[in-house]
């Protein structure tokens, strides 16, 4: 089996102001620095307004920076949008793309996500592609096929596997406190790797959805799981770090 490093990503979503965000980032950076060299990777994805100040706070620590979205175009007349090149300019290494909240609320289709991934990789960013089935798809036994379809439709025709992470985030598990069984996670992660083809063994596949310090241990101990994408539990540095430490 490929030797894949574990990765813990904090998705702050639309949370954090200058003071609270900088305190949170500093706490995480301090905890990570105390353990240099880290045996796993840590990425913080603050809201766009905090990317630059957080970049300054985490500089010199092992904590890496990511964004929560990026536009498919490089520049131009797209009011309110931010390009992948701009994110790279600020020191971002990662960008979350195709999160189910954006697919639902912003109407992002898999085809749009594919364009964004291509642009992100061209700018040198690692794209974290989010996929996951709805409650209805799960109930009808279609979770695996729905996720596999989403993976293949959300990837550009030509993609760089070394700049790709896939996060399996069942829509029903996000923010609900409900989690799939370890068997379910293992099965879907395998289906994702199969869909990726020959590069499947080298791509990190994360789990996301209601990850908390109390449940992260068994999930991260699963060899098919290369890390976690953490939403609400990433807003508390102690809780987030307790999750990250389960990677060891
Ligand atoms: P949650 O969110 O950890 O709050 O469930 C995860 C995500 O949406 O990435």
Structure overview:
The protein is an alpha/beta fold and 248 residues long. The chain has one domain (7-247): TIM Barrel, CATH 3.20.20. It has helices spanning 18-33, 51-58, 84-89, 100-105, 110-122, 135-139, 143-154, 182-196, 216-221, 237-245, and strands spanning 7-11, 41-45, 64-67, 94-97, 126-131, 164-168, 204-208, 227-230. Helix 2 links the parallel strand 2 (41-45) and strand 3. Helix 1 runs parallel beside helix 2 (51-58), helix 1 runs parallel beside helix 10 and helix 7 (143-154) packs parallel to helix 8. The longest helix has 16 residues, at 18-33. It is globular, with a radius of gyration of 17 Å. The mean pLDDT is 97. The chain binds 2-phosphoglycolic acid. 2-phosphoglycolic acid binds at residues 11, 169, 174-175, 208-211, 229-233.
Q: What is the number of strand segments?
A: 8
What name is given to the CATH topology?
A: TIM Barrel
Tell me about the biggest sheet? 8 strands, parallel, barrel
**Name of the CATH first level:** Alpha Beta
Small molecules (ligands, ions, cofactors) in the structure: 2-phosphoglycolic acid
- Supply the helix-strand structural class: alpha/beta
What is the helical fraction, as a range of percent?
A: 25-40%
**Domain module count:** 1
Mean residue pLDDT: 97
What is the global morphology? Answer: globular
Strand fraction equals 15-25%
- The ordered string of helix (H) and strand (E) elements is EHEHEHEHHEHHEHEHEH
What's the N-to-C terminus distance? 18 Å
What is the radius of gyration computed over CA atoms, rounded to a whole number of angstroms?
A: 17 Å
Strand order of the largest sheet: 1-2-3-4-5-6-7-8
């Amino acid at each position: 089996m490929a030797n894949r490093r574990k990765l813990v990503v904090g998705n702050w979503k639309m949370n954090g102001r200058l003071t609270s965000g900088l305190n949170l980032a500093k706490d995480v950076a301090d905890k990570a620095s105390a353990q240099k060299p880290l045996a796993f990777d840590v990425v913080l994805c603050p809201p766009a307004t905090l990317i630059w100040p957080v970049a300054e706070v985490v500089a010199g620590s092992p904590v890496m920076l990511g964004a929560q979205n990026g536009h498919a175009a490089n520049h131009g007349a797209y009011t309110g949008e931010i390009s992948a090149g701009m994110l790279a300019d600020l020191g971002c290494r990662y960008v979350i793309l195709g999160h189910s909240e954006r697919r639902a609320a912003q109407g992002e289709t898999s085809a749009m996500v594919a364009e964004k991934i291509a642009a992100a990789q061209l700018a040198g960013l690692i794209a974290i592609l989010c996929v996951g089935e709805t409650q209805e798809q799960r109930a009808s036994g279609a979770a695996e096929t729905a996720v596999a379809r989403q993976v293949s439709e959300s990837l550009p025709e030509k993609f760089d596997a070394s700049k790709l992470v896939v996060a399996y985030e069942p829509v029903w598990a996000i923010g609900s406190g409900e989690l799939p069984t370890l068997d379910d996670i293992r099965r879907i992660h395998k289906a994702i790797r199969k869909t990726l083809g020959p590069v499947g063994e080298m791509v990190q596949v994360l789990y996301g959805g209601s990850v908390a310090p109390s449940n992260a241990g068994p999930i991260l101990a699963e060899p098919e799981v290369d890390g976690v994408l953490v939403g609400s539990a990433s807003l508390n540095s102690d809780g987030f770090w307790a999750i990250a430490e389960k990677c060891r």
